[in-house]
Amino acid sequence: MRRHVLLAALMLSIAAPAAARTDVAAAHVPVEAARFDEAAERAAILAVVADMQAAWNRGDYRGYMQGFKNPDVVFVSGGRIKDGWQGALDEYIRNYGPTPESRGDLTFSDMTIEFLAPDAAQLIGRYRLIRPENAMEGINTRLFRKVDGRWVIALNHVSARPIETP
């Protein structure tokens, strides 16, 4: 009998810590997930987009580019992958020029955000660029990543079509 009691005590001493570890592991929530505030993160992403729109409309292409991951953002537009952050900046300066007329007025709208992880979100939205020549509108699909506490666009895909302006 004493042998059975010792065996039972031994089995309990082995099983109890294992059960405790399982309970703790099951209840463990990563610190990042525990602190994730979806509304605040959504607002932070929308603020990045609003800052980009404002920078473009005042002719600050570098300010516009602050919304993108530097240097290794991926731009997809016009059926091709463009050459990273600096390549995109150079193309914006070359193609949209220094004047308000050549640059146009940019508006982002109808944005939906889906969080993929605490540090990753997908934004799909519309944009409209009104200017005397080559006005366009389209859809942006953007993968945002949180890098060093800041949301930036890691992948930007643009689908555009010309529009008539009055």
Would you mind describing this structure in some detail?
The protein is α+β, with helices and mostly antiparallel strands and 166 residues long. It is built from 6 helices and 6 strands. It has helices at 2-27, 31-34, 38-57, 61-65, 84-96, 100-103; strands at residues 74-77, 80-81, 105-117, 120-130, 136-147, 150-162. Strands 2-1-6-5-4-3 form a 6-stranded mixed β-sheet. Strand 5 and strand 6 (150-162) form a beta hairpin. It starts with a helix and ends with a strand. 13% of the residues are buried. Residues 2-29 have low confidence and may be disordered.
Task: Give a short overview.
The protein is an alpha+beta fold and 166 residues long.
Q: Specify the structural class.
A: alpha+beta
Q: Radius of gyration in whole Å, from Cα?
A: 26 Å
Give the number of helices.
Answer: 6
Strand order of the largest sheet: 2-1-6-5-4-3
Mean pLDDT: 85
Low-confidence stretches: 2-29
Strand proportion, as a percent range, falls in 25-35%
Q: Which series of helices and strands comes N to C? A: HHHHEEHHEEEE
Q: Whole-Å distance between the termini?
A: 98 Å
The protein's oligomeric status is: single chain
Q: Which geometry do the CA atoms define?
A: globular
